[in-house]
């Protein structure tokens, strides 16, 4: 049978998006692993599955490239937000995710005419058992050195709801990824701290309202961008005085986003704003567990996004040189 998928991305974090009325229609793990192979049209970071919801306008599931399932994905949610809003002819919607129903809305473009969406990132917790993570007998790790990880980098652990370890670093650790890679691979393998793995981000403060973030994402590896990681990094930076603005500009290898950080009583309210780009529409033949691409139609949107990338390269030249 022939099915249609979209290839989409938020900040260069690339996915296939498939809309189904039947959540059990296919073996999503096998399909995702095949779609994400580099030799198949360049691969992707995962599959965004859009299915009916009993409590929201639609439900999103996120299958990572290795077949594992993420509880949330900020970059992917923006792409799903656009798909659902355009399908329903609305500018705002509620999307069901694994841990929460989240508000999404169309926003003014961040760059030229790029389709741009704002998505709620929630829930937020600094309790280690929500990641889950364990370190000695602590209940939290907030902006502190962990000698087992590095003698001087200050780390914060937070779930949003994906688990994140955020390190504030100098530019050397952005330009040279070896330490971050070594730590992330360890924490996503057999280890005593994170039994389910963790996303590891290194954050370099550029200005009082701007940071650069590089993320090693569990189930994926180094990625152009991770939406929940960028939001978590903005939160940690604001919380610890690294930035002093409620709206943080976040650069990453795949582009840039804006993250809004506010607090009401003891609850953090986080919003991720960025592009939702549709690269192409694909036709795929599926017969049992055999898959084959049969058509591809470019949208032309990636041409404009490339101009955004060129702009980001100029803005981050000092960081990445």
TrEMBL record:
<dbReference type="Pfam" id="PF01678">
    <property type="entry name" value="DAP_epimerase"/>
</dbReference>
<feature type="active site" description="Proton acceptor">
    <location>
        <position position="226"/>
    </location>
</feature>
<protein>
    <recommendedName>
        <fullName>Diaminopimelate epimerase</fullName>
        <ecNumber>5.1.1.7</ecNumber>
    </recommendedName>
</protein>
<feature type="active site">
    <location>
        <position position="73"/>
    </location>
</feature>
<feature type="binding site">
    <location>
        <begin position="217"/>
        <end position="218"/>
    </location>
    <ligand>
        <name>substrate</name>
    </ligand>
</feature>
<keyword id="KW-0028">Amino-acid biosynthesis</keyword>
<feature type="binding site">
    <location>
        <begin position="74"/>
        <end position="75"/>
    </location>
    <ligand>
        <name>substrate</name>
    </ligand>
</feature>
<comment type="pathway">
    <text>Amino-acid biosynthesis; L-lysine biosynthesis via DAP pathway; DL-2,6-diaminopimelate from LL-2,6-diaminopimelate: step 1/1.</text>
</comment>
<feature type="site" description="Could be important to modulate the pK values of the two catalytic cysteine residues">
    <location>
        <position position="164"/>
    </location>
</feature>
<keyword id="KW-0457">Lysine biosynthesis</keyword>
<dbReference type="GO" id="GO:0005829">
    <property type="term" value="C:cytosol"/>
</dbReference>
<dbReference type="GO" id="GO:0008837">
    <property type="term" value="F:diaminopimelate epimerase activity"/>
</dbReference>
<comment type="subunit">
    <text>Homodimer.</text>
</comment>
<comment type="similarity">
    <text>Belongs to the diaminopimelate epimerase family.</text>
</comment>
<feature type="binding site">
    <location>
        <position position="64"/>
    </location>
    <ligand>
        <name>substrate</name>
    </ligand>
</feature>
<comment type="function">
    <text>Catalyzes the stereoinversion of LL-2,6-diaminopimelate (L,L-DAP) to meso-diaminopimelate (meso-DAP), a precursor of L-lysine and an essential component of the bacterial peptidoglycan.</text>
</comment>
<dbReference type="InterPro" id="IPR018510">
    <property type="entry name" value="DAP_epimerase_AS"/>
</dbReference>
<keyword id="KW-0963">Cytoplasm</keyword>
<keyword id="KW-0413">Isomerase</keyword>
<feature type="binding site">
    <location>
        <position position="199"/>
    </location>
    <ligand>
        <name>substrate</name>
    </ligand>
</feature>
<feature type="binding site">
    <location>
        <begin position="227"/>
        <end position="228"/>
    </location>
    <ligand>
        <name>substrate</name>
    </ligand>
</feature>
<feature type="active site" description="Proton donor">
    <location>
        <position position="73"/>
    </location>
</feature>
<dbReference type="InterPro" id="IPR001653">
    <property type="entry name" value="DAP_epimerase_DapF"/>
</dbReference>
<feature type="binding site">
    <location>
        <position position="13"/>
    </location>
    <ligand>
        <name>substrate</name>
    </ligand>
</feature>
<feature type="binding site">
    <location>
        <position position="162"/>
    </location>
    <ligand>
        <name>substrate</name>
    </ligand>
</feature>
<dbReference type="GO" id="GO:0009089">
    <property type="term" value="P:lysine biosynthetic process via diaminopimelate"/>
</dbReference>
<feature type="site" description="Could be important to modulate the pK values of the two catalytic cysteine residues">
    <location>
        <position position="217"/>
    </location>
</feature>
């Amino acid at each position: 049978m022939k099915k249609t998928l979209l290839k989409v991305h938020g900040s260069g974090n690339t996915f296939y998006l498939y809309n189904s009325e039947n959540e059990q229609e296919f073996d999503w793990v096998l399909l995702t692993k095949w779609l994400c192979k580099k030799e198949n049209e360049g691969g992707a970071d995962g599959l965004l599955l859009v299915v009916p919801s009993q409590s929201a306008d639609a439900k999103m599931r996120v299958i990572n490239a290795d077949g594992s399932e993420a509880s949330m994905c900020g970059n992917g949610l923006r792409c799903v937000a656009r798909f659902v809003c355009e399908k329903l002819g609305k500018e705002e919607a509620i999307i069901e995710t694994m841990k929460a129903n989240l508000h999404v809305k169309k926003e003014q473009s961040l760059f030229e005419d790029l389709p741009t969406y704002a998505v709620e990132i929630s829930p937020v917790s600094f309790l280690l058992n929500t990641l889950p993570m364990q370190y000695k007998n602590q209940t939290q790790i907030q902006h502190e050195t962990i000698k087992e990880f590095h003698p001087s980098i200050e780390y914060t652990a937070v779930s949003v709801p994906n688990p994140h370890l955020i390190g504030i670093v100098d530019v050397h650790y952005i330009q040279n990824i070896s330490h971050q890679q070594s730590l992330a691979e360890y924490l996503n393998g057999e280890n005593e701290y994170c039994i389910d793995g963790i996303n590891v981000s290194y954050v370099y403060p550029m200005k009082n309202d701007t940071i650069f973030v590089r993320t090693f994402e569990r189930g994926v590896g180094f990625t152009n961008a991770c939406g929940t990681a960028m939001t978590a990094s903005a939160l940690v930076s604001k919380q610890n005085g690294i930035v002093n603005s409620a709206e943080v500009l976040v650069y990453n290898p795949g582009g840039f986003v804006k993250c809004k950080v506010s607090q009401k009583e003891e609850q953090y309210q986080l919003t991720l704003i960025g592009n939702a780009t549709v690269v192409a529409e694909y036709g795929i033949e599926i017969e049992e567990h055999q898959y084959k691409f049969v058509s591809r139609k470019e949208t032309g949107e990636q041409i404009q996004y490339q101009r955004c990338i060129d702009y980001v390269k100029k803005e981050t030249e000092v960081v990445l040189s």
